[in-house]
Design goal:
- The chain has 266 residues and is of the alpha+beta class.
- It is built from 10 helices and 7 strands.
- The chain has 3 domains: 103 residues, no CATH class; 72 residues, Winged helix-like DNA-binding domain superfamily/Winged helix DNA-binding domain (Arc Repressor Mutant, subunit A, Orthogonal Bundle); 80 residues.
- It has a 5-stranded antiparallel beta sheet with strand order 1-5-2-3-4, with helices on both faces.
- The longest helix has 19 residues.
């Protein structure tokens, strides 16, 4: 079955419903974009039913809901990509309903949390129209991780609350005036994205290869790197991974990295 296209033109809901109706088995490869960030994941089907999902650093069911928040990006169905052991038991109908809710909620969250690479910090003297600020346990957990160094993405990983819930809380804390976002250098913005794209390409071997690329580009502290230095890292990274994953996949990953770097550089 030839099913491929752009999420901006063919929403995930339509993809799920089409595969459900046709009772297809296989995997949908998704290279989604959201808030200027790139993601690479898989959504697995058996007889038209969702049975699993893969997205680096994200639990299977949460990965499915994350796919709904992508604003654009290419997708392609592969009937030879089979998941032997199901990891999701929720029905397609429930997933679609929750996914649409996440999609709508993310539009509001994005107004305050435009990127996972943002670094929030505490406001020294927060002002509030209320005499008292009451925070729930999950909100306190997130607030204790806000130190002006951790990105929102890092906070989401460490909080165990998931990316969506973490971003939701961050947005609430920003609106309340308790925290604010700190301006980032190109290196601070790009380094987490380089790590994610490298991990999707190489798995557990990604950190070593990426560090080697930084070293060859004479970048000893990625958080202080300029846009031009990060472009040099991409060149060395592409050369390093080509013998490992092949020229096509290496070139595709490098293209994503360069595109995001130029976007950050303006």
């Amino acid at each position: 079955m030839a099913l491929e296209g752009e999420l901006g033109e063919f929403p995930l809901t339509d993809i799920i419903q089409l595969l459900d109706l046709s009772k297809k088995t296989g995997g949908v490869e998704i290279r989604g974009q959201r808030s200027g960030q790139l993601f690479h994941g898989w959504l697995y089907f058996r007889d038209g039913k969702i049975i699993g999902a893969e997205l680096p650093g994200v639990a299977p069911l949460e990965a499915v809901y994350t796919f709904f928040t992508f604003s654009s990006g290419p997708f392609r169905f592969h009937d030879d990509r089979i998941l032997s052991q199901p990891t999701i038991a929720v029905s397609n109908e429930v997933i679609i309903m929750e996914g649409i809710m996440r999609q709508d909620a993310w539009v509001n969250i994005h107004q305050h949390v435009s990127s996972l690479s943002l670094v929030p910090r505490l406001v020294p003297n927060p002002s509030s129209g209320h005499t008292e600020i009451n925070l729930e346990a999950e909100e306190w957990r997130i607030l204790t991780m806000v130190d002006g160094r951790n990105t929102i993405g890092q906070i989401a990983q460490r909080s165990s609350l998931g990316e969506f819930r973490t971003c939701e809380i961050i947005a609430q804390l920003l609106q309340s005036g308790l925290i604010e976002n700190r301006a980032l250098s190109p290196g601070e913005t790009l380094a987490p994205e380089f790590e994610r794209i490298a991990a999707s390409l190489l798995g557990t071997g990604a950190p070593g290869v990426l560090q080697d690329a930084y070293k060859q580009a004479s970048v000893f502290d990625p958080s202080r790197a300029t846009g031009d230095q990060m472009l040099a890292v991409v060149d060395f990274f592409e050369m390093r991974v080509t013998p490992i994953v092949g020229a096509v996949r290496a070139s595709q990953a490098a293209k994503e990295l360069r595109a995001r770097t130029h976007e950050v550089m303006g």
